[in-house]
Specification:
With about 290 residues, the chain is an alpha/beta fold. The protein is built from 11 helices and 13 strands. A 5-stranded mixed barrel has the order 8-11-9-10-12. It has a two-stranded antiparallel sheet with strand order 2-3. Strands 7-13 form a two-stranded antiparallel sheet. The radius of gyration is 19 Å and the shape is globular. Bound molecules: 1-O-phosphono-alpha-D-glucopyranose.
Length: about 290
């Protein structure tokens, strides 16, 4: 039985401290990779995967996100007057892109708490969670790949990737066994949020894409502060394991952590090189650098 995943939740209430001072007055979700805010990459991915409703969890100081997806009357009037048709289309495309709702998270209590804010808007149906920091370059959108896996396994699906070495401590880490008919799918036994390197149960790091069943909400209502003193989504999903099957999915594609300075630089280079307009001159420029 196919259950349509119609809604995608974007937690976007964090401070973005890894990107200070740029994020003092600008939401980190609005930092651009080339010319597009990182949250727009995620929204486009969700829409390409068939999601119809975008739910953004915001906070004080984040109104630029709402403005970005809204109509810009003054800008459009000015572009129209000056005959800048292509730019006008570009601006209108963003405001017509999606059906959006916003919920404010009043206090930054952690990712689990942020996702819980979407409970009433999601209701009783499976949904996607997309962490906007993670910009994914994939032939088939990562969320689409995950919805296909969800249809197959009929259980929550968490995107994973292999992380070698101590870097694994920056992630939620999955403990589980690959399915014999598809080793990309890992049936979860457990998971640990930001373990010490020596305590990590595997090399399978959970990254910022999830397809979750609505049961997660009652579990998130009952979690207590975990790693870093925060209400962790990972702890809610661990609770889910008691009554439902949960799977990791080693997706096909490249994930950039655009919430991190080095990750953002790499994403910028990769995406710029792929552009028809910028790619050729940018490649020439990079080649000319005597590194
Ligand atoms: C969050 C999750 C973590 C996951 C990571 C992926 O952590 O809590 O399980 O591995 O996103 O980016 P954060 O990066 O918000 O600290």
């Amino acid at each position: 039985m196919k259950t349509k995943v119609r809604k995608a939740v974007f937690p976007a209430a964090g401070f973005g401290t890894r990107f200070l001072p740029a994020t003092k007055a600008i939401p980190k979700e609005m930092l651009a990779v080339v010319d597009k805010p990182i949250i727009q990459y995620g929204v486009e991915e969700a829409l390409a995967a068939g999601c119809e409703e975008i739910i953004i969890i915001t906070a004080r100081g984040k109104s630029a996100i709402e403005d970005h997806f809204d109509i810009s009357y003054e800008l459009e009037a000015s572009l129209e007057k000056r005959g800048k048709t292509e730019l006008l289309e570009l601006s209108r495309k963003v405001s017509n892109m999606a059906n959006l709702s916003y919920v404010r998270q009043k206090e930054a209590k952690g990712l689990g708490h942020a996702v819980l804010m979407a409970k009433d808007l999601v209701g009783d149906e499976p949904f996607a969670v997309i962490l906007p920091d993670d910009v994914i370059d994939a032939t088939t959108p990562c969320v689409k790949q995950m919805i296909d896996v969800f249809d197959e396994v009929q259980g929550s699906v968490l995107a994973t990737m292999v992380v070698e070495g101590p870097g694994i401590s920056a992630y939620g880490v999955l403990d589980g066994s690959p399915l014999s008919n598809n080793p990309r799918i890992i049936e979860a036994r457990g998971m640990v949020e930001k373990p010490k390197f020596e305590d990590a149960p595997s090399k399978n790091a959970i990254i910022g894409r999830y397809i979750l069943t609505p049961k997660i909400f009652e579990l998130l209502e009952n979690i207590t502060p975990g790693a870093g003193g925060e209400l962790q989504l990972t702890d809610g999903i661990k609770g889910l394991l008691k009554t439902e099957r949960v799977y990791g999915y080693n997706f096909e594609g490249i994930r950039h952590d655009a919430g991190d300075k080095f990750g953002m630089l790499k994403a910028t280079v990769d995406f710029a090189l792929k552009r028809d307009d910028l790619g050729p001159p940018f490649r020439e420029y990079l080649k000319s650098l005597s590194l």
